[in-house]
Amino acid sequence: MPEKSRNALPSPSRRGVAALAAAASLALLATACTGSARSGANDDPNAQTTIAFWHGWSAPAEVEAIQANIDRFEKANPNITVKVVGNINDDKLNQALRAGGSNGPDVVSSFTTSNVGKFCSSGAFLDLKPFIEKSGLDLGRLIPKPMLDYTQFEGTRCALPLLGDAYGLYYNKDAFEKAGITAPPKTWSEFAKVAEKLTVPRGDGYRQLGFMPNYHGYETVVDHYMAQWNHSYFDARGKSNIAKDPAFKKMFTYQKSLVNSLGGFAKLERYRNTFGDEWGAKHPFQTGQVAMQLDGEWRLGMARDAGVGFEIGTAPMPVPDDEADQYGKGFLSGTIIGIAPQSRKQNAAWKLVKYLTTDTRAVVSFANAIRNVPSTFAALKSPDLKVDPGFRTFLDIARNPASNTPPASVNGSTYQTTLQDFGYQYESGRVKDLQAGLEKTARQIDTDIAQAK
Amino acid sequence: MSAHTLRAKRRRSALRTAAFLSPWLVGFGVFFAYPLVSTVYFSLMKYDGFGTPVFRGPGNWAYVFQDYPLFWPALRNTLWLVLVMVTCRVLFGLGIGLLVTRIRTGTGVFRTLFYLPYLAPPVAATLAFVFLLNPGTGPVDSVLEGLGLPAPGWFTDPAWSKPALTALALWGVGDLMVIFMAALLDVPREQYEAAELDGASPWQRFRFVTLPNISPIVMFAVVTGVIQTMQYYTQPLVAGKVASGIIGGSGQQFEPGYPDKSTLTLPQLVYNLGFQRFDYGSASVVALVLFALAMAFTALLMRRRGGLIQAGDRP
């Protein structure tokens, strides 16, 4: 291009630049206002309406079971039509709740119990207190305490439990008999002996491993182990307690000793890499690669569906020797359900939430269908609840007052992920000094929480 | 011509230019300028997607650089991949390009075979590699063990996870092969003939004829490779998740960067902070770091390119 004509190109004026900057600022402010949590429940619950219910279930049997409950709800409430959207994970849910819009959900659910703190504190889920009061529900008489605890955060009840999960010990009864073991272990010292006894080496690997203790062994994560110790993640000031509460040090030390006694971290990891998918038929407990497994109540049905060739035993996970009176407790979690704050049909949405979480027939039929633990006292006692001896173990764990789950936090499960990450480093030997590691991890947890506030 | 007429003519000219430029201006404004300004704005705010952003000043920057434990490992990994993976891909792509331009028989078959892996969807390709390189059940380690060679842990070993990702990237080098092949076929034959007459060895012909001619393409491959690697997300995420064995059950925690943060990259942090923790401020900081790095690398390479292009353009 000739020099002259290049110079003839107009340069942006200052006024133009200022106008552009102003437009950008306005656009920024407009963006900043999206996803506002403010909303009101002023819809007529008896009006003809359609509400959207987003849930995470995706297996055909689960989808069918939730649809059966929805059909019953629609029959009882002919003015409300429910549009059901399945296979929604927390990422999709969070993004939709923030984006807002008329096509968003009215009733929302999540499998991630540990995200309740984030949902309640950010306003992603609506505070249900006014609805509960209006309906005259006495939650304490309806729902077990641990489930009530994990569905609220710092006094804000933004969710209700929709069935629960209880974690216990699965064991291969045939392998037990072969090894001359007559009963499941009740304390951690017994457990270590049983795990060693059940371990059958083959070459530099295993023909059968007593128990996969590594934190990547599917459900053998830090918080599931911790549930068996008397512990407190946070102190009274809300600061991380993991370096001060001796229970954490005891758990990490015990798990590491288990890793060492069963062959060492590297050997166990090599063996772990031969395991099939946790959610498929080739799960190591189902294939007989491990003789004991820490898992949720759903494993019973999955293992039977996979057609395992041995008898399955269930029991609570062991407890420390000096806390033997606590035997029977376990880790709890579950699906939570709430209302989207952007919903313009909050009263209709509450009708569905109330039905799914407190109607005994709804809770029992859904629990029977997807083999989860019912989340109300009435459903737990219902004669319609299908209970076999294996499943009863988990119902008892769910009812045990000492059963527990990590407390909700403003940044969701981030603190658990941080602690879990420390667990990987400690079990693999990359971190040697346990106390110093726990102190560093506690500082990190506090910093992350401060950043989220 | 009066000053008034001249001004009116200039204004019309400016308006015409602006009209022709408007599609680009709209695209640039909506898809680049606005997001960039927004990212800078949000990097100074506390914002979780609800309510109004609250000014936090440099707090997010301090958190990311000082307190966020995943930032420095992710930055180191990203730089490792930029230096090693991009270099390997360019050299390997050039090597394959040279090979397929010299093959006399079955040219079409070989070109297709080398190009096909590039068409495999990244998730499927990564899953296949994790399966092939599984230290417990994968055929690669079985063969290595059969030969009496050490069998690495690949995606389960922090020391081997990035080389395994590099191997995956080399397998899908078909895009570069095609570009290099086109450039190599475009080198004037007479220059090779002249060099041969002057007694140049094969290496000298490559060094003084081929390389100067294809240097702009080499630079293009490096610059686009660097930018792509800065955005490297799918393969390390899938590899880390699948190799960890934790592929997401009900409410399970996500551990990014398995094993031992060795497959963490900066784009994963943007997702983790922005769309899992909903800490948009810190996510914006990481996005800006990525932007600055991409700009710095590109500027550096473009400065080097000046000399290469001149050499290539020399008649």
UniProtKB/TrEMBL annotation, chain B:
SUPFAM superfamilies linked: MetI-like (SSF161098)
Alphabetically ordered keywords of this record: Cell membrane, Membrane, Transmembrane, Transmembrane helix, Transport
Any Gene Ontology CC annotation: plasma membrane
TM segment ranges: 21-44, 79-101, 113-133, 164-185, 206-227, 280-301
Family: Belongs to the binding-protein-dependent transport system permease family.
Matching PANTHER family: ABC TRANSPORTER PERMEASE PROTEIN (PTHR30193), ABC TRANSPORTER PERMEASE PROTEIN YESP-RELATED (PTHR30193:SF1)
Protein name as catalogued: Binding-protein-dependent transporter integral membrane subunit
Upper classification of the organism: Bacteria, Bacillati, Actinomycetota, Actinomycetes, Kitasatosporales
